Amino acid sequence: MPAVTMTGLTGQDVRRRMERGEANTVRDESSRSVSQIIRANVFTLFNAIIAVAMVMVLLTGQWRDSVFGFVIIINTGIGIVTELKAKRTLDRLSILVAAKYLVRRDGDDVEIAHDEIVRDDLLWIRSGDQIPADMELTASWGLELDESMLTGESRTVRKSVGDTAYSGSTAVAGMALGRVTAVGEHSYAARLAAEAKVYKKTRSDLNAGIDTILRFMTFLVVPLCALLIWTQLNTVGGWDAAVSTGAWRQAVVSAVAGVVGMIPEGLVLLTSLNFAVAAMRLARHNTLVQELESVETLARVDALNLDKTGTITDGGIAFDRVEMLDGDASDEARRLAEQALFDLANEERPNGTGRAILDGLGERGVTAGKVAARVPFSSARKWSAVEIGSGGRGDRATAWYMGAPEVLLSCLRESHDDILDRANAIAAEGSRVVLLARAHTVPDSIQGPGAWSDSDPRPLPDAEPVALVVCSERIRPDAERTLAWFREQGVRCRLISGDNPRTVAAIAGKVRLTGDEPPRYMDARELPDITDPDALAETLERVDVLGRVLPEQKKAIVQALHRRGHTVAMTGDGVNDTLALKEADLGIAMGNAAPAAKAVAQVVLVDSKFSHLPDVVARGRQVMANMERVASLFLVKTVYSAIISLGVVLTAMPYPYLPRHITYVGALTIGMPAFILALAPNTRRYIPGFLRRVVAFALPGGIATGLSVLLCAWIVPHAMGWDLSRPDDLDAMRATSAIILFLMGVFVLARVARPLRSWRGGLVAFFAAAGVIGMFIPFVANFFALIIPAGRTLTATAVALAVAAAIFVVCIIVVPKIGRIITHETKTR
């Protein structure tokens, strides 16, 4: 750490500022608050409708028909408890990835949390840090900031003493010490910080489809409820007769039966519940889902852009050797080269290559020398430099450069194709190669003990190549197996890196990125301009590996893939990945990533294990595929309830079943099976079109069920000679209709649960048997008004069941064909 004389704030100063509210406190949660979770689960439109319906039934005194309301209360309670448990899990996990900052207080450097920073603190900013509060620089050691989050300009900005560094910008090179001038909501980038908070509501294909269903139901339920009440009052002799005889109670109960059936009450609950359970399951595998709705995005991913370092490799780099190039292989020349190399790598926060060089040369006894000035390494420049002088009389200072061979060699006056060929040959073996060069003159822009003062420093053209430095990377042992899983699942993986494309391609070959085929690689400097996304997208279709990629190119690559209709996931751990992580549909950061990368990512692999990604994607696919099944199940009930209610209104007949009947049938054929099916394994990749497929599936079953119940209610009473004005005959008709409803519910469940040659078949059989057995249990039968048919009623019921089964088969075959014909004619027009 550079020596500074400033002591910073005292403990008493900090306490006073805390008391005045001058701390850097911002709202930064990893999940919804407790109040948000309760509001989201309780105060919904359909819960309000159910509550009103429940109160109406309770006013009639027939409390057994209000059981549906208690089921909603129980389900809502389950949803709240599950989300609260998920919140505790996610909050606990998010602490592991929370950024810490270094401040100078009472003359010592102490590490504190983001919220503990106060105004006037002396704050250290190091490479990779995202600046947490506005500050004025009091000392700088080559600090360069990426202010793209504030200005949209991707070019790094060099900062000097006296300059202002705004919160939200990211240090990409060097370091600095500054005085905090604005904190919390008063900082320049407070709104950007709010946008980057770890929890936010994401509009998705699933949510959009469910919202459309709910909006439609809102317009349908209210008028139908009014019509049903009016119709049911007419069936008992009109309003006056209903009030005088008390028959209004039965009319209200009948109307409520129609309304309750139309509401897919468990669908919204089950969606949020499924997201929360998926997040908890992933958390157990050290995977932090920072946006619950991003679980859906996992299911749709078909293009995965992988950052090499930290993803395919474990981030560990070992120093291998130094190959001298100038013909002078003497011990003295090698000693000077190794000393310069050590000093170049000896930055405040060296990258992986720098750390490997320091460790390797440190084992050989090399120690830090005297550095007069420095240009820190920048991922945008891809080189660093130092000025070194021996201090002896007559000795002259020397400028040493270390960086990408092709970049440094392109800046030199003389051509060195042979050196570049040698570097490429080494890189092709999968090693990392950097070039060490020396200039015996020093740039005019060097001013004393500071750094290069030029805002855009360049290597001197008369510099001479001295040595090639070779390092090797460690490949993660699980990388090949993980990539093979993605290939099997139809996800196109691309390796994108700032390193030499040959090096990256060699590593891609070792992990079999493209299977048995050799990976196709390209230097990103040869890509079409980022202002031409169509040309870029066309090129990307033919490329598996990209090297020498700049941060703004990573972002443009994601945008180009979007233009081709791909759902893109991006992994990264460095500050140069933040733009692409934010642009991607799903940003995945490693646990050891820079704070800026973790701030914009939707998913953080806390233990930085690439092998968690298949589980992440599989969990997302499970949620979406199962929610499609479950939504279909709920929507069938909505369709047949609407058809039955419409038929009742048009024919002015008594409603064919009671609310308690729909509670019984719905619990056994929809509610409980839906919870089980929603959590079942499923790895089918999600394809957009959720609402269209759900509606197409629900219509045949819903139409068949509605027609079957209406026909039963119309024909069976006439065949049996029942008088529906008599309570016993009305109860018999409703019990028969409930049996038809249950049978059709089992048929629909069997269709949703396919394939049945597994535990799914057992699931259907279990709930079918439970429904039948319940009819023979006196308490259950009395509570839910279930009647076992006998004699002529049994015969009529059996015939009605056979007719219902035939109607179901016909609708399953005919309705989809009609839909396809209509769709074809619409497209033709």
TrEMBL record:
InterPro entries: ATPase_P-typ_cyto_dom_N, ATPase_P-typ_P_site, ATPase_P-typ_TM_dom_sf, ATPase_P-typ_transduc_dom_A_sf, ATPase_P-type_domA, HAD-like_sf, HAD_sf, P_typ_ATPase
Entry's transmembrane regions: 42-61, 67-84, 213-231, 251-277, 630-655, 661-682, 694-716, 736-753, 765-788, 794-815
GO MF terms, alphabetically ordered: ATP binding; ATP hydrolysis activity
Keywords: Membrane, Translocase, Transmembrane, Transmembrane helix
Keyword Transmembrane helix: yes
Subcellular location: Cell membrane
Residues annotated as domain P-type ATPase A: 99-195
Primary location class: membrane
Membrane protein topology class: Multi-pass membrane protein
GO CC aspect terms: plasma membrane
Keyword Cell inner membrane recorded: no
Recorded superkingdom: Bacteria
NCBIfam families: ATPase_P-type
Protein's name according to its UniProt entry: Haloacid dehalogenase
Species name: Bifidobacterium catulorum
